[in-house]
Each structure stands twice: as C-alpha cells, then as structure tokens.
Specification:
This protein is an all-beta fold. Helix content is 0%, strand content 30%.
Length: 79
Amino acid sequence: MGPQVESLNDPVLEHHYRGHRDAVLCADFNPNQKQAATGAADAALMVWNFRQSARAYRYIGHKEAINDVKFTPTGTCNN
C-alpha cells in the first residue's frame, strides 16, 4: 500500500500587512516566532510584529533594493 496523503485545506489570508512601496524580495522569521523581517525593491527593511497591538518598524536609508535579510539564531536581524 502506498503512502497516504492527507487532504489539505486551501490557505486563508489571516492578516494583510502594508508597508512596502514595491515588491518584497526577501523575508525571514525571528526564532522567537513573534516577528518577521522583509526587504524590498523600495530599499526599505520592515520588521513586523505579529501581535495585533504591536506596530511595524520601517528602516530606510539603503541606496538599493534589499535582496537578503536574516535573523541570527539569537533573534537579531542582519541585512
């Protein structure tokens, strides 16, 4: 008998985050699972907090698009 495949439900959009002004090029999740960081063609880095009452932070100043962002194992962000 072959492997069993469990039926998956269609994904549902739970939250819509706004902040970048151009295409998102990279993303990473904080090991604490409370934040994500994204970089985009708009040359901005965004740090998103998953708690509904917490705000997102937008970091500007890069001259070009941000193509890579990565949290360290301790939870700090490097880009």
